[in-house]
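Late entry, written up from scratch paper. The run itself happened at the end of the previous shift, but nothing got recorded in the book at the time, so transcribing now.
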Amino acid sequence: MIITRPRDWDRVRAQIADLGATSVFIMGCGQCATVANTGGEAEILAAKERLEADGVTVTGWSVGEVACHAGGQRLEARKHAGELEAADAVLVLACGAGVQTMADATTKPVTPGLESVFLGNVVRHGVFEERCQMCGDCVLDRTAGICPVTACPKGLLNGPCGGMWDGMCEVLTDRECTHVAIRRRLAEQNRSKAGAPLPPKDYSKKLKPGRVDIRADRKRTGEGR
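Output as recorded:
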């Protein structure tokens, strides 16, 4: 899931002021931002209260099922067409993808209320950890399911830095060195060959903006007929 955190409120208010907006519609997200407690119903109602205290009219609000789903966001916009029409701008409490999807679904100016921080694993309720950078060149088959690019603060692929001491990370001193953990797990699984040096990352595989069209791929390969 995409982990978000609230944007500084003074900055949010400045964004709305820069738009010359005196009325706002608030859009949240029923998935990631709700789980992260940044863009669910409770957070939207809190933002509504703060805006109204600052003299901004909130014409309405909604928590769409998935803010980054283009079709779903357009449907949500149609459901609240009158409230959106009455607003000068839309404040979106979702990740950057959700903000852009909303911008495609309305002609009103859209402004973000959250910061997108990282792609996270849910460790337990309210605790998230970054485990993947979506690099497009995965090495988890060679590193026992531990991503050195993400887990190592220095992003080293092939072993610890000179600052590692007693198996502990130089940067995050309270945790084990990523490469010590990788080597131990490989040894436990009797996978010595998997620990061979990795080649440099092929960053050409991570082209921006990314796009995947499953239907076009199936048509080209003849699958799904």
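The two ends are 32 Å apart (CA to CA).
(Scratch paper discarded after transcription.)
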